[in-house]
Amino acid sequence: MDPHAAWKELLEARYLKDWDRAEELAKGLLDWLDKGGFPPTTVGHTRLGKIWHRNIAHTTCLFVLVDVKQARKRAKR
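RESULT FIELD:
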């Protein structure tokens, strides 16, 4: 996996409200991070360190999954 590409695609999918793609990318990036993969550079300079970028990526993925769930719930109404 290229976490940098996945990060950029995740943000774009979320912006475009492409919920299927956003879910796929969020789950894939979470899996990558949980298995010890290096994090993408998220917000801020690379000097902030891997822990910073891992936490930002992890939290963002969780928020995106919440967005996906809520969007699907709204679509069922």
